[in-house]
Specification:
The chain is mainly alpha-helical and 220 residues long. The protein is built from eleven helices and no strands. It is globular.
Length: 220
């Protein structure tokens, strides 16, 4: 559990390689000790780090393991985290490979809806934020902007409550895209500017996405 805390602290500082090392050690020790909840927690932490590194295949693998173990042991919080991580990773993996067919996202949406329901029952703000964000992004990609806005606005609020600046920025970036799709340019400029600012402030290159949209709006 000490290794878990060390890994979590390093992830928060963006020192991913050392964080992975600590979490992997923690998984092995927890497994040997029969500490199932600690093992599940570290698998979920590893999944989140892989998402941050845009290594979605590994993120899916870790979250699947966490999901199986949490359901076997009845760890509801671990299950909520695993569902959120799994759905989030699937959405971004599909998006990265430029797949836009709705059926590609159906599985991820199903897991995210399960995760959201469970996270709301457990008042797990971080998992709620991940689920809302992922659902919103999925609906942006399959060009259902009105549905996307509903989830993204809730995702932004949940990310504010959990204190996750990266998720706040990502929600705002995709909100801008959804608003642009509905020809609501004023709201697209507001959310896009704020999203780009937040992402740039924490050193994430993802600020370029809303900035590109703002450049298009400026040109129009």
């Amino acid at each position: 559990r000490i290794l878990t805390l060390l890994g979590y602290s390093l992830r928060a500082q963006g020192i991913y390689d050392r964080a992975i090392s600590f979490h992997q050690q923690a998984v092995e020790i927890a497994r040997e000790a029969g500490d199932r909840s600690c093992e599940i927690a570290n698998l979920n932490h590893l999944s989140r780090i892989c998402v941050a590194q845009k290594n979605y295949g590994e993120a899916i693998s870790y979250s699947q393991r966490a999901l199986i173990l949490s359901r076997q042991s009845g760890d509801r919080l671990g299950e909520a985290n695993a569902l959120a991580n799994f759905g989030y990773s699937e959405v971004f993996q599909a998006k990265d490979t430029q797949q836009v067919e709705p059926e590609v996202y159906e599985s991820a949406i199903h897991y995210l809806e399960q995760g959201l329901e469970l996270a709301e029952r457990l008042s797990d703000r971080q998992s709620q934020a991940l689920c809302f964000s992922s659902l919103g992004i999925a609906y942006v990609v399959i060009e259902q902007p009105q549905q996307a806005i509903t989830y993204l606005e809730q995702g932004w609020q949940a990310a504010q409550l959990s204190g996750d600046l990266y998720l706040q920025g990502i929600n705002l970036a995709y909100l801008a895209e959804a608003c642009y799709g509905l020809l609501n340019y004023e709201q697209a400029i507001y959310t896009g500017s704020l999203g780009a600012y937040l992402l740039e402030q924490i050193g994430s290159n993802d600020w370029r996405k809303p900035a590109a949209l703002l450049t298009i709006l400026q040109g129009q």
